[in-house]
């Protein structure tokens, strides 16, 4: 898979841009703040319907514009597909495939697949559990786009249940409340949560050996790493990718914490409270890993995800956004060796020297929002 054409209208700093791309390595080179990351962010948006930099869509629309449009022509198995997303902050986004509208934007998920490395990836190791949950869920959706609906359903049910817990808790403290509606939302949360939890558990089992292999390649050391999915259900529940078993376990656990939930007004059990625990040499990576070890582990997570997507059939587009400037010489060379064989690699760098010699290919200069092919 590779992206042959990227067109933007009123996206970030670009009023309009059309960029032709080819398989192999392409380096987008220019000083910071000139629009390089905006280009790869747009490609990532085509793949995930989200940004790796911001949580909301509003910052993606150029100042003064009402909407932004991102179009990409992706080639897979010698067939080209045109994917278009219209970003409308505060309104429903719209999508088209080969110029024909689709019912929902998430219908385009899976048509463009990317694996993006960025400085923000350090949060996969150093950041809060939500960063690691998002990593897992994004990878799940990349592999199986139908899980976008599962993820959305769970978030919707969680929001509704939290709102109900707040009102029911207040009513309970004032002398009376009817909790039958809460029983219904417990069942909804258990069903949606079991689907998401089962998918995550299976994913971690498949991902673990690939991350081990990638870490050994990046770090070139024998220090053991560990990756464990820790559920809010507690250690007494044996995690297995069986949604019926997990649904029953979630429902039982929710009944056990209902009083606490009513007191606090939040849902205390479910996939939104789970954690992907990462260890290096039996120590928690989040608290004990050095800067270099943290980078190696973050890169290993992305590379493991890339290998898993490749095993499903079809290489994703590899995007390295200002990553090499963050790495020491050894890690730069090791990462370059690992990504060089990919069908398409897009790199952003402030200066040409930040691109390792073995990643030679096309170069595009980006300056003041203007893109220019150099070779």
Q: How would the blueprint of this fold be written?
A:
Layout: E1 2-11, E2 14-20, E3 24-29, H1 36-48, E4 68-76, E5 79-87, E6 94-97, E7 100-101, E8 114-117, H2 123-126, H3 129-143, H4 147-173, H5 180-219, E9 225-230, H6 243-256, H7 258-264, E10 275-280, E11 283-284, H8 285-288, H9 291-311, E12 317-321, H10 329-339, E13 344-349, E14 362-367, E15 370-373
Helix pairs in contact: 4-5, 4-7, 5-6, 5-9
Report on this model:
With 375 residues, the protein is of the alpha/beta class. It folds into two domains: 1-113 and 314-375, Rossmann fold; 121-312, RecF/RecN/SMC, N-terminal domain (Glutathione S-transferase Yfyf (Class Pi), Chain A, domain 2, Up-down Bundle). Helices cover 42% and strands 23% of the residues. The chain contains ten helices and 15 strands. It has helices spanning 36-48, 123-126, 129-143, 147-173, 180-219, 243-256, 258-264, 285-288, 291-311, 329-339, and strands at residues 2-11, 14-20, 24-29, 68-76, 79-87, 94-97, 100-101, 114-117, 225-230, 275-280, 283-284, 317-321, 344-349, 362-367, 370-373. α4 crosses α5 (180-219), α5 packs across α6 (243-256) and α5 crosses α9 (291-311).
């Amino acid at each position: 898979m590779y992206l042959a054409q990227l067109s933007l209208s009123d996206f970030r700093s670009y009023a309009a841009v059309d960029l032709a791309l080819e398989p192999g390595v392409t380096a987008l080179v220019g000083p910071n703040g000139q629009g390089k990351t905006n280009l790869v962010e747009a490609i990532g948006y085509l793949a995930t319907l989200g940004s790796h930099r911001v949580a909301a869509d509003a910052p993606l629309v150029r100042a003064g514009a009402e909407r932004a449009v991102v179009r990409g022509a992706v080639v897979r198995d010698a067939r080209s597909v045109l994917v278009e997303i219209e970003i409308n902050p505060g309104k429903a986004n719209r999508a088209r495939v080969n110029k024909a509208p689709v019912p929902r934007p998430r219908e385009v998920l899976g048509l463009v697949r990317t694996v993006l490395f960025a400085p923000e990836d350090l949060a996969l190791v150093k950041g809060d559990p939500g960063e690691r949950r998002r990593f897992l869920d994004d990878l799940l959706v990349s592999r199986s786009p139908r899980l976008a609906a599962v993820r959305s359903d769970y978030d919707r049910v969680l929001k509704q249940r939290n709102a109900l817990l707040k009102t029911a808790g207040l009513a309970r403290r004032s002398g009376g409340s009817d909790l039958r509606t809460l029983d219904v939302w417990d069942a909804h949360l258990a069903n949606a949560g079991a689907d998401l939890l089962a998918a995550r558990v299976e994913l971690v089992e498949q991902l673990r050996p690939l991350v081990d292999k990638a870490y050994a390649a990046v770090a070139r050391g024998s220090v053991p790493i560990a990756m464990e999915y820790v559920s809010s259900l507690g250690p007494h529940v044996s995690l297995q990718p069986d949604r019926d078993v997990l649904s029953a376990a979630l429902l039982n656990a929710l009944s056990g914490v209902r009083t606490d939930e009513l007191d606090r007004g939040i849902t205390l059990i479910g996939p939104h409270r789970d954690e992907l625990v990462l260890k290096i040499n039996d120590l928690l990576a989040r608290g004990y890993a050095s800067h270099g070890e943290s980078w190696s582990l973050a890169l290993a997570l992305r590379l493991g995800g890339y290998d898993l997507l490749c095993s499903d059939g079809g290489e994703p587009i590899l995007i390295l956004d200002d990553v090499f400037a963050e790495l020491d010489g050894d890690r730069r060379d090791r990462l370059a060796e690992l990504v060089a064989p990919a069908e398409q690699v897009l790199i952003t760098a402030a200066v040409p020297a930040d691109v390792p010699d073995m990643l030679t290919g096309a170069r595009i200069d980006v300056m003041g929002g203007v893109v220019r092919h150099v070779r």
